[in-house]
UniProtKB/TrEMBL annotation, chains A, B, C:
The chain crosses the membrane at residues 30-49, 61-82, 94-113, 125-146, 158-180, 206-222, 234-254, 275-299, 311-327, 334-353. InterPro entries: CaH_exchang (IPR004713), CAX-like (IPR004798), NaCa_Exmemb (IPR004837), NCX_ion-bd_dom_sf (IPR044880). Keywords: Antiport, Calcium, Calcium transport, Ion transport, Membrane, Transmembrane, Transmembrane helix, Transport. Belongs to the Ca(2+):cation antiporter (CaCA) (TC 2.A.19) family. The gene is cax. This is Ca(2+)/H(+) antiporter. GO terms for molecular function: calcium:proton antiporter activity. It is a multi-pass membrane protein. One of its GO terms (biological process) is intracellular calcium ion homeostasis. GO terms for cellular component: endomembrane system; membrane. Its main location: membrane. Ca(+)/H(+) antiporter that extrudes calcium in exchange for external protons. It is found in: Endomembrane system. It comes from Amazonocrinis nigriterrae CENA67. It holds the Pfam family Na_Ca_ex.
């Protein structure tokens, strides 16, 4: 059993601890931290269950499953927070997830991979196709913000309508992206599939893994409830604004599984796969998670538009530009990883120093 | 006779229909639509005439002719609209043409080409040189807007002076670009010339085509007059702002010939030529059409500066970034075409939802 | 003796002339111009002395010396100006140096090199690594401006704290960049070292060159004092704002040595080296000179933050985008050089027309 698995088993202990903290009223800060820690192993097991089920049901249905459940943890936390009315935190977590995947995940992968290998290469077509889709998706999801920031007299209603329209277009694009990668150009992606096959020699038990997925999903939802309930008091005790919480803290918890995967494979010199995880996750957030949240907010009666803070727009644009600049040569080394992490630190500092403004709790 | 030519012959019928609509007062909406349709075949014939004349007069003079008349339809519509005082529509049509060429034309070409061919390549040096010039030209033409948006207390006069100065620099750059492509580095462009030669086995009749060019130019000017006269009433009947009209509708009419050419050659797997048309046309608008309109406005006493709406700046910048991102790998497929079209739709939605502000009719 | 050296000897005459102008009170304009001219040969000799000393003390210490003294002239002028309280000019000179290196130096190199050679290539890994670091550094140094521009209610103190924090991160990144280029990946940079060796067959005299470096540094500091003292009156006599002076004039004086080197080697078809100078100097300004000035301002009691004018942000972003776009294909010709110079002229025009606003003298 690997060190990672032992860590995950240990972290499972935080499920009862967080429940105890909640019911015995040990304080919001303790609930917040323990619930956050409890989500990490559950997210990892949801990922494993999804992959095992995908192997059984075949590439097409499995691909769809992966595409839908790939960011499930994040989506669940965001839906719970949205239902609790924390619209600003949810919106901040969308931009924060994109920034975190492109700078923190990619940066850690390149740094830790680069400390072991002098130079790592990643030149597959998949990376390039994903990067284009990701660039488009990120730009599209930021357009309502750009429009609101550069125009005068745009009503809330117009922004809401534009956001829903953009969300519909993005979900359609996501469906077409799946059609491309699973049907018309599936051969481009075969390397990745072969790679997944390697790890499973005997056919996994479908019902077992469906059960695991179900239980983990329910537990993540439960822990998310406690995380969200304690969020406002806990972060204000830590002296953090809800913007910083949404942009930096929530995405680290929600994306921890991707972080672990991307870094692990980078240390095995599979940079193509590592970058696919980071870029693909950013793409899924902009093409699927974000749009679904806009439509869910509309259904739940908690209207959420895509009008982010202007500085979030700047931070995401900057992350995309730096990630493109560093990954465009198809090679990486420890310095490039450090540059990405430095960019993440500088952006984090800027969010830390950002004053509380009306509209953000 | 190809289907395209039959369609163009049919569209010629709209010349008498639009005249009837105008003189029999069938309403501005009918005049607007029929005049718009009548311009399409005229623009296509102007393009054919220019190319035939270019074959006769030789590469240098022919190249100059192509460079000057390449965007003639657009320039005529814009000059008529400028003379009628529709400065905002003219300015919007400049940014709209750039956006339309980079997203709509390139997107349709990649999509329709990609539905027939699994993967299409375009790797000529010409594409790269044009892309660099286009990037610079677009940035330069947007600088006065950026300056005005980011500074306080800039007078109209300063903006006008800066716009004229920028226009002069851009026309000089355009002249140098022609010198580069026709004299000092003409060998880079020889593929394109050979391609044009293929289609004409016998020497065309110079005077015939000069006559065609003259008649078409006059008719385009006539139809443009009717289009512009009916524009304000017609678009307000359709519930469209003049910004949307300028950014989306006018460029589709003005660039229809380029659209047809780019898509047709893309479907013959000549993606290099297809992209050259789209990128080259964007470049010509920023380096030649825009600057000429600034100077023409100054001469006509209808001062026009290069201070666009801030959101136009965002939309153009985004179009350039997406087009660069998608074309940089030298390959295309139907998904990339779809991504460009999706970006066009999202930007179109944003302009559709943009409220009417003072300064825009 | 080359023409360049004769010119430099001639320019040394401006040292006594500028002193005479200062003490005999010939007027601020004369002092300003003569002191500016006197700095040019001194900067060139400081560069030569640094390189000669680097040869003696070996690659590691020599590399550190080059990295620290590479932008010494600029740093000295900026420190003198900062001490005199000209914070706005110093800040403007940081952005101006980046713009000047990327557009003016790179543009002149590509143009003059391109007039002699039809096509020039530069494909070394060094150029790419430097470009990534430079992109990051420039983005990081601009983040406080972007944050201030897109947020409301940020106090001076917050901006100052954020600027110091960013400065510390950037200096750490600079140290890591040196570690990368001198230790862990030194083999990537060996071409450049060999190149430097060629020019010196016998071991240079260490003490002689240390003396030269010391004398030149003192003289540059002296001339900088006179330049800075006369700056405000002289530039207002020329009708220039202090913003234009800081962005355009001061960097031309401060970077003249790099300009001469980059253009000279470009004309010998060593484009890799030429671009390394331009990109590397931009990187050093953003990673080292700028951060050092922030910390020096704090020590000197002349607090300087990294909150530039919004249009400076636009101008630097645009310069980086154009330079990346033009250099990304690894080839250059005279047209690309002209495009860079045209961008510099357009940006210069925009700064020239920028009105004086409160906060800028």
């Amino acid at each position: 059993m690997s060190g990672k698995n032992i860590l995950f088993l240990f972290l499972l202990l935080f499920i009862p601890v967080s429940l105890a903290a909640h019911f015995l009223e040990w304080g919001d800060l303790v609930v917040f931290i323990t619930a956050g820690l409890a989500i990490l192993p559950l997210a990892a097991w949801m990922g494993t269950a999804t992959e095992e089920i995908a192997v059984v049901v075949g590439p097409t249905l499995g691909g769809l499953l992966n595409a839908t459940f790939g960011n499930a943890t994040e989506l669940i936390i965001a839906l719970v927070a949205l239902n609790a009315g924390l619209v600003d935190v949810v919106k901040a977590s969308i931009t924060g997830s994109i920034i975190g995947n492109l700078l923190l995940v990619m940066g850690l992968s390149m740094l830790l991979g680069g400390l072991r290998y002098k130079e790592q290469k990643f030149e597959s077509i998949v990376a390039r196709v994903n990067a284009s889709s990701m660039n488009l998706a990120v730009i599209a999801i930021l357009l309502p913000t750009a429009m609101n920031y550069t125009s005068i007299g745009i009503s809330e209603q117009i922004l809401q309508n534009l956001s829903v329209a953009v969300a519909v277009v993005l979900i359609l694009v996501y469906a077409l992206t799946l059609l491309f990668s699973m049907k018309t150009h599936a051969y481009l992606y075969e390397v990745g599939v072969a790679d997944a096959d390697e790890t499973s020699y005997k056919k996994p038990n479908l019902w077992l893994w469906c059960g695991v997925l179900l239980v983990c999903t329910l537990l993540v939802a439960l822990e998310s409830e406690m995380l969200v309930d304690s969020l406002e008091v806990a972060t204000s005790q830590l002296g953090l604004t809800s913007l910083f919480t949404g942009v930096i803290l929530v995405p680290i918890v929600g994306n921890a599984a991707e972080h672990a995967t991307a870094v692990t494979v980078a240390m095995k010199d599979k940079m193509d796969l590592s970058l696919s995880v980071a870029v693909g996750s950013s793409m899924q957030i902009a093409l699927f998670v974000g749009p679904v949240l806009v439509i869910a907010g509309w259904v739940l009666g908690k209207p959420m538009d895509l009008d982010f803070k202007p500085f979030e727009l700047v931070a995401v644009a900057v992350s995309v530009l730096i990630a493109n600049s560093i990954s465009s040569d198809g090679k990486s080394n420890w310095l490039e990883g450090t540059l990405l992490l430095a960019a993440y630190v500088v952006i984090g500092l800027a969010f830390y120093f950002q004053p509380v403004t009306p509209g953000i709790g």
